[in-house]
Write a structure and sequence with these properties.
Elements: H1 3-17, H2 20-38, H3 48-71, H4 75-89, H5 98-112, H6 120-130, H7 137-149
Helix pairs in contact: 1-2, 2-3, 2-4, 3-4, 5-6, 5-7, 6-7
Length: 150
Amino acid sequence: MNIFDKISDGIKEAMKAKDQVRLDTLRAIKKEFIEAKTAKGADGELNDDTAMKILVKMVKQRKEGAEIFAANNRQDIADLNLAEAKIIEEFLPKQLTEEELEEALKAIISRLGATTPQQMGMVMGTATKELAGRAEGKAISAKVKELLSK
């Protein structure tokens, strides 16, 4: 079962459970998926890689929104954004721990033969593709910078 079908099933379950936050979040995901399917130049299909990118983007948007709302004393909306992010994350692969991320990046760095901070772009290009959905870009960037600076 692909991600699109899982989201559709989740919508049905949320309706039965009368879980409004979950229902609204899953409907937002489905809307993004449908827009991606019907976008100009799209072939009418949505593969799981594209779906993952959309989900990662949505989680990032919710977390950034929560920070902004919390800074502006709107904790109620910040909490809603965090709850939505948590629901979206259920459909992403398990996030890498700090140690797992470091191991994966060390393997990528040694495979590419990178040794200096000037080669960070090359490592980041490969790392973001290979670790998509399993680690945040900021975390990857910080760890790559740390590893190449040693």
